[in-house]
């Protein structure tokens, strides 16, 4: 995910509490994703400079004024500062990651216009620079460009068609053959994936590929959340990162998924993620039933205190065993074969 300065700018020109709360929610969502090694979150090395020039850097006085004017006493200035500074100081820069120091352009246009709602010149020029860089990347590293999502403050279509006339390129390495071969100025174009927040950005992520790289319960938790948001967004465009139903994962669940090939085999991973999202969305409920103390249909349901054991089909051969907890939390306990009715307490 590429965070533009526009996306990180403090919305100081509003006294609407919902606008500022949405800004805080976006920061928290990006921080959650940025903390994982599975999704690379980058910014330009010029981002802080651009925000300072625009007077929109997330300083304490700015944030405190916004919180007071919106009447949001439950939000802590220090918490927002910590998250914003973490995102701005992560040290992963586009220029280092892509090997390009700078680019200048004669023109940059996008359909839809990603600068249409940006009234601050410094922020608008920053978006144009990122778009110029992405059209260049689309020519020299199309796979990287296709896997990148540009985050802006404007809510718009999920894909933008960008054209640019590139004038000068400064590579990080001297005599970089990737960019030296062009006769400048040169026209370039690319389809750029665009997001407004983590939820809209999640629509572009390949969750199957990400799951295949999972090593820890925390990483699995994030991918399940992203998979849920990708599905839920199709039904409810207002869904938020904080709106994912509560669930937890046991280590035995990951161990059993690995034992049966549901950690690295793409076709199986796809079916697994679909079943997990079904449970969180309360979808395809006919594929599940209470897990009983025995194989008989009249055997009593298996309980753990007031928690109820449940069995949900991944396919004919494999099934998820979960605990539906009294609190409403779903606990993913294990993956089993067809004739296995075990569930860890």
Describe the protein's architecture and organization.
The protein is an alpha/beta fold and about 350 residues long. The chain has 14 helices and 11 strands. The strands form 2 sheets. Strands 6, 7, 8, 9, 10 and 11 form a 6-stranded mixed β-sheet that branches. A 5-stranded mixed β-sheet has the order 1-3-5-4-2. Strand 9 (about 305-315) and strand 10 form a beta hairpin. The model has no long low-confidence stretch (mean pLDDT about 90).
Task: Provide a short characterization of the protein structure.
The chain has 345 residues and is of the alpha/beta class. The protein contains 14 helices and eleven strands.
Helix content: 40-55%
Helix count, DSSP H or I runs of 4 or more residues: 14
Q: Tell me the fraction of residues in β-strands, as a range.
A: 15-25%
Number of strands: 11
What structural category characterises the helix and strand content? alpha/beta
- What is the global morphology? globular
Rounded to an integer in angstroms, the radius of gyration calculated over CA atoms is 23 Å
H and E order: EHHHHHHEHHEEHEHHHEHHEEEEE
Mean pLDDT: 91
Sheet with the most strands, sense and barrel status: 6 strands, mixed
N- and C-termini, Cα separation: 39 Å
Q: Runs with pLDDT <50, length 5+? A: none
